Amino acid sequence: MADMDPATTTQTESMMEEEASLFSSLDIILVTLLAGVVLYFVMNRKKPEPIPEFKKLDTPAPTTRETSFIEKMKKTGKNIIVFYGSQTGTGEEFANRLSKDAQRYGMKGMAADPEEYEMGELSRLSEIPNSLAIFCMATYGEGDPTDNAQDFYDWLQENDDEDLSGLNYTVFALGNKTYEHYNAMGKYVDKRLEELGAKRIFDLGLGDDDGNLEEDFVSWREQFWPAVCEHFGVEALGDESSIRQYVVKEHTDINMNKVYTGEIGRLQSFEVQKPPFDAKNPFLAPVTVNRRLNKAGDRHLMHLELDITGSKIRYESGDHVAVFPTNDSALVNKLGQLLGVDLDVVISLNNLDEESNKKHPFPCPTTYRTALTHYLDITQSPRTNVLYELAQYASDPKDQENMRKMASSSPEGKALYQSWVLDSCRSIIHILEDMPSLKPPIDHLCELLPRLQARYYSIASSSKVHPNSIHICAVVVEYETKTGRTNKGVATNWLKNKLVTDNGHKSTVPMYIRKSQFRLPFKATNPVIMIGPGTGIAPFMGFIQERGWLKQQGKEVGETVMYFGCRHKNEDYLYQEELEEAEKTGVLTQLNVAFSRDQEHKVYVQHHLKKNKENIWKLVNSENAHIYICGDARNMAKDVQAAFYEITEELGGMTRTQATDYVKKLMTKGRYSQDVWS
């Protein structure tokens, strides 16, 4: 009866009541009706939806990315692979330079992102004659691997029974001596590969970004290639000519909807936003607040608030927000004028190696203007390889000679590069201005310039209090160079100009969240000691908000101690009202502020730590306090650490060695955390 319509059902029921004696006849009628309805349903029902498999036939299969680097190397006749762990692009840049170098030595190389390949295949590299794996590995944060090398790091840690006896390798590490765990990732990869049986064919290279990373790399590279040639018994071809990696294609007739206008990943991703949001798919967050924090002085310290309503973005206190800045349009126009080119031509730079996973150096097709605004770094000092490649385009022999000298490994060349480029903070624009004979083709320049990178800021809010808002605290970078020019920080000046409404439009910031290990203790009852002078206060604003929220929830919260420092109380005492209110309400149990220049002798946060040494030692040694430091790595973080050594030595009755070990153990246990930069 289920397949019959309601009218038929009603009619049948009344007939049964009136004519019980005709039951058998009605039975026949019912069966006939039922058959008729079924036949009608079969003939007239809608056809079922096509099986989803048909969709697969209509949709072109996504291009499957080759995850076997061994098969790719065999297919393309390459014998050298350069893996990179890179957070800011420098490791990738060095890897590309080394893979290009291979050609000059009669070999064939490829740069590779370990995240894109099956690293368990390293044991198979011996299948390729004269093969070599080079690892350009940067260290991020507190001795951590970069995001793209995390899986490789995990693989190395987990595979004790891996046999890499057929693998020839070398490592160049990128780090910064101001950090506690200098070049930890590069050192670990070098040591671990040897433990697994691989053969190191050249010494580990250590690059120090606090010194001269470029010089460290060039010096290592100059010795590395002769050692490789000797190991494999090959002779250098001596080919020092420029090697192009990409070829330019101009698009004269193209649908502008197919042209990238600044998107990081998916075309038109800024028009149609789709979560999840990450480094390849940033969220356009509207700016709801942009205010100056300092009351006076010649610096500009600012507080911004980004609205993440509806984005499904989640963050924790201590996380970082990454933003994608753009270059100043005046600088982009200046570059176009110096080269005498139309910046609005639509182009693609296509990789000459058709098998490469990296088809373009930046999203293409696009215009030169977009590339120079959104994708390329035009303000940092160019590395020596850029000078070398561009030297051929200088019509003045003297300019050519100087550029090649600066790119060489000779002492005179290194000294000239240091003084004329690095110490003078010359960008590519400044070099073109000061060498009028230098007129490189813009496509070659775009091939050589590094990618403009995301900038990371410690989040200055708590998601418990501000679930739909992310706060940033930053100081605008601006300084005069030795040549009398004014250089401006790309990201901070861009953020400064992000007004809440700009010509009636909401200003937006492309952003995503990078998770951090900088976390409040799991137990709210643990005391916290926060040390953050200047903009280093940022994550602690989030911590203070969160501890206040916990108290409001009726939770027991341990002592919350803040050590802040600035130059002058009446100028740059950041978040003064908020901090004093937190102290007044008991959220902050102690607020210690060092005003470094308000008296004859300078006073810093470490001086306040020593002054309160008994209380510090009680909190740390007896009450399981967690220590947090944020800000300058070069001086402040080291001075604060030295202060903790002194306090531990004096009040713990230890030798300096024992005190150092005590603090190191706090670090290991996650009770001494740093979020520092140089």
UniProtKB/TrEMBL annotation:
Per UniProt, residues of the Flavodoxin-like domain are 80-225
Annotated Gene Ontology cellular components are: cytosol; endoplasmic reticulum membrane
Provide the residue positions that the database annotates as binding FAD.
R455, Y456, Y457, S458, C473, A474, V475, Y479, G489, V490, A491, T492, W677
Q: How does it sit in the membrane?
A: Single-pass membrane protein
InterPro entries per UniProt? CysJ-like_FAD-binding, FAD-bd_FR_type, Flavdoxin-like, Flavodoxin/NO_synth, Flavoprot_Pyr_Nucl_cyt_Rdtase, Flavoprotein-like_sf, FNR_nucleotide-bd, NADPH_Cyt_P450_Rdtase_alpha
Membrane spanning residue stretches: 20-42
Q: Which domain of life is it from?
A: Eukaryota
Cite the entry's keywords alphabetically: Endoplasmic reticulum, FAD, Flavoprotein, FMN, Membrane, NADP, Oxidoreductase, Transmembrane, Transmembrane helix
The residues that hold FMN are: 86-91, 138-141, 174-183, 209
Identification of the protein by name: NADPH--cytochrome P450 reductase
Under Enzyme Commission nomenclature, its number is 1.6.2.4
Molecular function (GO) terms for this protein are:
flavin adenine dinucleotide binding; FMN binding; NADP binding; NADPH-hemoprotein reductase activity
How does the cofactor bind to this protein, according to its record?
Binds 1 FMN per monomer. Binds 1 FAD per monomer.
* Cross-referenced HAMAP family: NCPR
Residues that bind NADP(+), according to the entry? Answer: R299, T535, S596, R597, K602, V603, Y604, V605, Q606, D639
* Gene source species: Amphiprion ocellaris
Reaction(s) the record says it catalyses: 2 oxidized [cytochrome P450] + NADPH = 2 reduced [cytochrome P450] + NADP(+) + H(+)
Tell me where it mainly resides: endoplasmic reticulum
Give me the gene this protein comes from. POR
